[in-house]
Every structure is written in structure tokens, then in C-alpha cells.
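USER: I would love a firmer grasp of how sequence relates to backbone shape in proteins. This is the protein in question:
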Amino acid sequence: MKVRTRTLVATALVLGIAAGPAVAQAAPVTAAVTVPVPTGTTTPPLYTAAPDAAALRKAIAGVGPDSKDATAALVRVGGTSGRWVGSSGVADVHSGRKAFDDARFRAGSVTKTFTAAVVLQLAAEGKVDLDKPVQQYLPGLLPSGPKGFEPVSVRQLLNYTSGIRSADGPGDPFEEQYAHRFDVVDPHALIAEAAAKGPEFRPGEKQHYLNIDYTVLGVLIEKLTGTTYEQALSERILRPLGLRHTSVPARGENRIAGPHHHGYQAVEKPGGGSTLVDVTDWNSSSNWAAGDLISTTADLEKFTRALFAGRVVPKAQLEEMFTVPSVKDFESGEDAVQTAGMKRFVLPDGTAVYGKTGSRYGYSTVIGGARDLSRTLVYSVNSTDAKGQDMNKVAYGIVMAAFTR
């Protein structure tokens, strides 16, 4: 299933090229743009002033059952420059229960950051070579031949330059997605369906942000670790960091275990206006290693701090997560912006921040911040149109308030 790429703050952000060392890839145009990262203690932090509490409170004011944009919002702004935590809205629109800070939610494509981290851990341990073809580790996965696949490196899966097409699924309209919300999908079947279509472009030639690359990486993790993706994630990240409220649901699980906010999608009514459809219960097996994570803002904040600090992925491999390949985006034709598991955003004042967005119906999520950890941001917004083309207005306000310097 194709996943639309979104800008973090719609047109207010100019997407940039990531910092980090050059990355070799096995395709025509593959050198990564490198921006030296300052070292030592003389470089001032990007953020020194405390978060703007008034602006953050304003950004989430009015969220609730009567809002056309979001029913709840949870926000954590942190870093060495200061801290702010806030919430607004309701846990569900029927009871009107107040939103609570430790609510669990579907984190969507934030899952990819966790998946990339596990692969990079395996690379640091010498269990996988990022420059070697995935076909070497998973024989028969991608058909070869005149119309088949050239070697696709593990790195090209990480940064979406593999050229593997999206698998088919329910159509984009919400109604079609909703009708199939309890379908259980086998990741191997998704890969086989996608691979049968043949390549979309030569590996390393362009960047196309699709779930399929991370579905393949999930299978690769299972092959290299000899366990399930879920178990590998738990043993390597969740348990060591104490992320007790983060999990990947079982293949046939439709519900969010533990205390959580309900998610809603606004659907137009035939006579005009709209109604909120509860989308909380949903099987996300089709997203699996690309988007099936359930978490809390506290857990995601802890993960973000540890990741940026080099305590999840060794610093040599961590550079992959701050490096954008020097290719064009397949859909827009503009410079690529995705890294291995994250994305680089350049704010209007030129400040570069890194992070990952995620969206499932009813839930919009962001993790990220300044690379020097002077400012971090994690939010969960119960958007009433989480899959819409435009960015949610509440989320936009949170980002602009959090990253004001």
C-alpha cells in the first residue's frame, strides 16, 4: 500500500539536504551530500531559550469534540534548553473524559525509525553489510532477469532508493480502507506482490517513500536475528530503554491494549456537514515493520533522546540516519529528503531539525528535534483527517511553537 509523504509543516518548511558523511551506493547517482557536523564544546547549542509556553498552550487550545481538526493533543517539548509538557481535548467524544498524558496511540510510520535502528545495530555488529544486496541475505525475494531486479543494497532499502514498487491494497478513499480495516495481511505476501510488478526504477536512481522497503527490512531482521521482528525490537530497543508502554500488536490484534485515546475520522454526510467515525480498532498488519507501532509520548521522547545521543545505534552507523542520498524524489522531482528511518527538515530561519512523522486514521505523531538535543519534540494529535493532503492545523501550530528560537 502506498503511503503519501508529507511535509512536517506544510509550505512553511523548506526541505533540506541532511548532514553526515558521504554514503556509497550501487547505482548511477548515489553520492550523499555531506555537511560537516561541528564537534567539541565550542559550538553553541541551536536552542538556548526555554520553550515558548504561551505559544504551545495556544497551539493546543480549542482541541476537543467540537474542533474540526483534532479531538485530543499530547505534547512534550524537551532538550537542554528547557521543558514543556501539555495536553488538551478528550479521550473519547462520547464520554467527554479529559485527555490524559500517558495515553497510548498508533504511531504510524514512526515505526520506521525503530526498524532502521535495529538494522543499523545489526550492521554495527557485522551481521549485515549495508552495501551488499538484500538478495544475498534473502535469496529469491526479488526476481532477477531482463525485467527483474538488479542488486538492491540494504542501504537502498533504508533510504527508499530500492526501486521496489508498492504492493496493492484497498484504494485510497477512507470508505474503502474502513471496509477492510480488520483484514490480516502477511508481509511475505505483500513483498511477493510488489516484487512481481518489477522495478519502478534502477536501484539508487531516485527516492520513493514507500512502506514496502521497511516491510522487506522487517523480514531481513527476522532472518538475521533468528526471531520475530516483534521480539527483536523488544530485546534490542524496548526493554533496554524501558519503553514499557510501546509494542507492536500481534498480527490479528485490532485493539489498542491499555489506556488510550480514541481516534476519529471526519466523514462528510450526504446532506452536508460531517460526522466522526471511530477508527480506534483497526488491524495494522499491512504496515507491520513500516507502521504498526503503538506507544506513548513519554516512551517516544525517551527513545528520541537516546537515539540522538548515540545510545541506541552506535555513532558510526547513526550517521546513516542524518544522511540524505543525493537523488531526486520520484514523485515531486525535487531533492530527496528522507534518510535511513528519519527525515531532515529546514525551518524558515534555516535551522535544521531531524525527525519522523507518522499517521494512521485518527492518529498523527511526530518525533524529532535538533541534532544537538537542545530541543526535542514529540506529539500525538488525534487528527480528524490524519491521512489528508494538508497538514493538520493543530500539529502545524505545535511545531511552529516548539521550534521558535
About this structure: The first helix runs from residue 53 to 60. DSSP finds twelve helices and twelve strands in the chain. Residues 106 and 294 are 5 Å apart (CA to CA). The longest strand covers residues 70-78.
